[in-house]
Amino acid sequence: MSDQDANDSPLLADPIDPVDQAATEPAAAETRQPAPTPQPDSAVNPRFKFYVLRVASNKEDRVKNAIDRKVKIEGVEEKVGRVLVPTERVRKMKAGVRKEYDQKLYPGYVFIELEPDENGMIPQDVWFMVKETEGVGDFIQASGKPQPMSRVDRDKMLEVAEKKPEEQANLKTEYKKGDRIKVTDGAFENFEGEVDEIVPDKGVVRIITTIFGRPTPLELEYWQIERV
Fold it and tell me: Which of 97, 114, 126, 135 fits as disulfide partner to 63, beta carbons 3.0 to 4.6 Å?
């Protein structure tokens, strides 16, 4: 695959960073014990890197679940960590009814945590296990080689992926501050004004309209207004 493919990634990648492993010396008065063997867990294995997979549209969850099953069946937990499909919780209001749903942040992509070999390559057994999963296209590559995500992009992705749903619910609306609108429902129907603020926690749009010659703020659900 060409270098150009790297530009298609939703997040750029950096070369693998070497990781130093520090050993802690026990106190002199204590009996020396052999250092514990690091467990191949995503939270403690410093060699794990996140890679980006292109997958078939609308099959992100199916690919994630299939890879998770294969990892357990083939016993490669020491080489494969988390498999993520980052989403955000979106709140939608319509006719006074609030609905919430998960919206994928990176449609067509799955993020997989792997331990590369000493040459920085994905182990062959893991490579084929992933590539032979239905719905998988290819790894994001650069110079013909799968590239891990940079630390900055990895942290940005994880910040959202690891949030609890109640911490990330946002109001799904097509309006933004400064939009000219007209009220289409309620006591102020046909009044015109300007969007002043989107209020996600309350599920409303705050507008400024003119009543009796004075600027007046109103809070309305977004389905109660339309662009002028």
Answer: 135
